[in-house]
Amino acid sequence: MRVASLSCFLAFAATSTKAFAPSIKSRPLAAANAIVTQPSSNYLTVRHMASKTDFITSEINSNQVTIFSKSYCPFCSKTKASFAELGVDAKIFELNQMDDGADIQDTLFEMTGQKTVPNVFVNGKHIGGNDDTQKAIASGEMKKLLAQ
């Protein structure tokens, strides 16, 4: 009985292995693909981050004043109001209202070393946050930067 059962089991196992061969093969391939696609995945992340960098750089270079902000931030509101008082039409990106706002903020941190908002750029130059902007306005440096 055991021999018959073993024979049946071996016959079943042989057929089952063939029947399940695609899934057995796909597991090692999936693992291999995970290893192989990992660099590809990292590349996509780098490419994705590069596209964020390109977006940020393009906006900074295309606008006299670019502000990366959050709509609920009181420091951002003060910065935006200060530029409005100076008669400057700033390009404002409300990161909390953008699908990729967190990614853009992460990329800004990589580019500038500043984690917070507002993140202000004038004529392509990184100014900093609200405190830096207010100091530049008070000292007259902002008018010089805007005149460039």
CATH architecture: 3-Layer(aba) Sandwich
Kindly provide the radius of gyration, computed on alpha-carbon positions and rounded to a whole number of angstroms: 28 Å
Number of helices: 6
Please name the CATH topology: Glutaredoxin
Task: Classify the secondary structure makeup into a structural class.
Answer: alpha+beta
**Overall pLDDT metric:** 78
Placed side by side, the strands forming the largest sheet appear as 2-1-3-4
What does this structure look like?
This protein is α+β, with helices and mostly antiparallel strands. The chain has a single domain (2-147), classed as Glutaredoxin (3-Layer(aba) Sandwich). 68% of the residues lie in helices and 11% in strands. The protein has helices at 2-19, 21-62, 74-85, 101-112, 130-139, 141-147; strands at 65-69, 91-94, 119-122, 125-128. It has a 4-stranded mixed beta sheet, with helices on both faces. Strand 3 (119-122) and strand 4 (125-128) form a beta hairpin. Helix 2 (21-62) crosses helix 4. The protein is globular. The protein starts with a helix and ends with a helix. 19% of the residues are buried. Mean pLDDT is 78; it is low at 1-47. InterPro entries: Glutaredoxin, Glutaredoxin_euk/vir, Glutaredoxin_subgr, Thioredoxin-like_sf. Residues 1-19 form the signal peptide. Residues 65-127 form the Glutaredoxin domain.
Briefly, what is this?
The chain is α+β, with helices and mostly antiparallel strands and 148 residues long. It is built from six helices and four strands.
